[in-house]
Amino acid sequence: MTNAFASPLTSEAFRLIATPRILKEPAPESFDPKTIPANGDHRLADMIAPDDGHLHKPASVLIPIIKHSGEATMLLTHRASHLKDHAGQIAFPGGKIAPDDSSPLAAALREAEEEIGLDRRFVEPIGFLDPYLSSTGFRIVPVVAFVEPEHTLTIDPSEVESVFEVPLRFLMNPIHHETHHREWRGKDRAYYAMPYQGHYIWGVTAGIIRNLYERVYGP
């Protein structure tokens, strides 16, 4: 599989592979409190989020794949250091689903506009990943989307410190999906990490990227 990523991965090549394999709608169990998502931080560690689904907080994120000519990239953010949840970490645009959001997609698009000024006119959603349960109890529906490279961004400093892009072929190459460990609440916690040029992509973000790889390139 590693050799498949020896050359640049274009957005059209990724589209051909991904479109038949990602979900057309959010999975039925996405917000079912009777079902614990199979994907989440608990895959590599003990269940460290609430195991009562009624306590999970519904959220969604946008996975923005930039359609650069020749080499597709994924847009990621550095969250502001003062935030209550996941402060200072690398993340996708997204957050809690508000009561007036009509769907996970609507929430992801709204959050992307609010956090980084990504106009939804430049965004082409193509599908969804399975729900992901974070260690902090967020039940996240990831939305996969292509973004036109002509977009402009206006970062909200109260939410985001900076943005950067990573080649999609780097993130989809499993050789870069490292398993790291750290002590958390007195226990050893294992998690995915994908260090890239000084950016430490780990935890929820790396876990969702891993799930994207598994759904698109897995058996």
Strand and helix order: HEEEEEHEEEEHEEH
Class derived from helix and strand content = alpha+beta
CATH architecture verdict: Alpha-Beta Complex
Q: What kind of sheet is the major sheet? A: 9 strands, mixed
Written overview of the protein:
The strands form 2 sheets. Strands 1, 2, 3, 4, 5, 6, 7, 8 and 9 form a 9-stranded mixed β-sheet that branches. The model has no long low-confidence stretch (mean pLDDT 92). The chain has helices at 11-18, 104-116, 168-171, 203-217; strands spanning 39-40, 57-66, 73-79, 90-91, 94-96, 123-128, 132-133, 138-147, 160-167, 178-184, 187-193. With 219 residues, it is of the alpha+beta class. The protein has 4 helices and 11 strands; from the N terminus they run αβββββαββββαββα. The chain has one domain (22-217): Nucleoside Triphosphate Pyrophosphohydrolase.
Helix-strand blueprint:
Blueprint: H1 11-18, E1 39-40, E2 57-66, E3 73-79, E4 90-91, E5 94-96, H2 104-116, E6 123-128, E7 132-133, E8 138-147, E9 160-167, H3 168-171, E10 178-184, E11 187-193, H4 203-217
Parallel strand pairs: 1-7, 2-8
Antiparallel strand pairs: 2-3, 2-5, 3-4, 3-9, 6-8, 7-8, 10-11
Give the tags.
219 residues, alpha+beta, Nucleoside Triphosphate Pyrophosphohydrolase, 9-stranded mixed beta sheet, two-stranded antiparallel ribbon, 18% helix, globular
Concise overview:
By secondary structure, the chain is α+β, with helices and mostly antiparallel strands.
